[in-house]
Queue: 2 jobs
Job 1
Amino acid sequence: MALSSSDPSPGTAAVLSLVLPGAGQIYNGDFLRGVVWLIVTPGFWIGTGGLFGWPFHIVSAITAHHRASEKHEGLVPA
């Protein structure tokens, strides 16, 4: 599949989600996934006193990168 300028960059998606969980998913065009991460991650930061905040930040970035990679490869609709 040829890449178009509208294909999300996996690196950009990952960095956005590291800065603000859910931002990478929204960048990928997955608005509802992004909103879920925007709600879940702060919930774990607050609910666990910061214990599980970092893992959710990292998982958010990994999933944003993975989803953007799938869109680049044409495995999911862009």
Job 2
Amino acid sequence: MESMNRSQPPENYLIWGVKIIAGICILALLGVHFVVNHLLAPGGLLTYADILSYYQNPIVPMMEIGFLVLVVVHALLGLRSILLDLHLPAKIASSMDAALIIIGAVMIAYGAWLVIKVVQLG
């Protein structure tokens, strides 16, 4: 049997733990989202005016940005795990890590900017 040449060490337990904790937190926040936006809303859906009013509560934008951060971190760590399974050369793997961090930061910054704009509209 051939031994596999690993150019990248396997994912460490800390990153794996962050991914699991992020997934659990996402499920909790998704539950809150569904209750507020679909069960408590009249007719099962908030109107535009309802959303603007809803975002004036300071906890809501913080919760939405936290939800965004958790989803981006969870998704990009999952993508990183898949890419590591390809046994990429070390140079490409380190560039991949940097690229994923930059992509994640841009996604979070853009999403947070959108949340702030919605708050300002209200």
